[in-house]
Amino acid sequence: MRKIFFNLLKESMRDMRIASPTYFRKVTRTDRLIKFVILRFIPRWITPNHVTVIRFMSVPILIALVLGGYTKVATVVFILSALSDAIDGALARTRNRITKWGIVNDPLADKLLVGSMVAIMVSKYIHPILAFVIIGLEIVIFAGALYRTKEGGIIVPAKWVGKIKMVVESVALGLIFIFAITGISHILFISTLLFYAAIFFAVLSVFVYKSI
Question: What is the pTM of this model?
């Protein structure tokens, strides 16, 4: 079943072209640091797509943990899942394992992870309207990218604003998890400010992608 699923995805993306292919292959300093600290312990047979699939699988597990009240365990799972985003990217670039499937599905896994946790944690500890705005912007950004891919057959790389947004959202969510454990109000205040910053970068992302 898994092979059929991956074959269908591969077939559907066969004719897609990648915008700025060198952009995807550029190894950053962060990639080199991750390679030195983490990647040398990861076997060669593990691909970036494997890591992305694990992130997909972590989403329902996280939802179950959070709704079940296992906040401490959920915090650990969320941090590992969020870090896997940097790991699969570094793995792809440093080992030259970049695929169209990974380029398309890596940001989708990120949005499912962030979106599900925003829907639960932000709604519960900050405000449902803030959660609605963040998720709405994520849908607009992803739908726009998907539309351009289907219309022009071109996969567009995430811009720096999108990457900053993802990092800010992940840190803000991590702080909410910590607040849920410790109850320290200052942590929730900082998390709220970071979410407003994430909204700014999300809006900026919309205009950046429209200019492509």
Answer: 0.82
Tokens of 109: 């896994």
> Please, what is the angle between helix 128-152 and helix 185-210, to 10°?
30
Cβ-proximal residues to 173 (8 Å cutoff; 6+ apart), any chain: 78, 82, 114, 117, 118, 121, 122, 191
Of 164, 150, 143, 151, residue with least CA distance to 209: 143
Q: Which two tokens stand for residue 131?
A: 């959660």
C-alpha 207/C-alpha 212 separation (Å) is 9
Render pLDDT for 25-47 as a digit per residue (tens, 0 to 9): 678 888 899 999 999 899 999 99
**Local structure of residue 40 (DSSP, 8 states):** G
Beta-carbon contacts of 97 under 8 Å, excluding residues fewer than 6 positions away, are 47, 48, 91
Maximum separation of any 2 CA atoms in the chain, in Å: 52
The class level of CATH for 22-210 reads mainly alpha
Q: Which two tokens stand for residue 172?
A: 């803000």
* 19, 154 contact by CB (below 8 A): yes
User: What span, in angstroms and rounded, lies between the C-alpha atoms of 122 and 172?
Assistant: 10
Low-confidence ranges of the chain (pLDDT < 70): 1-25, 145, 147-159, 208-212
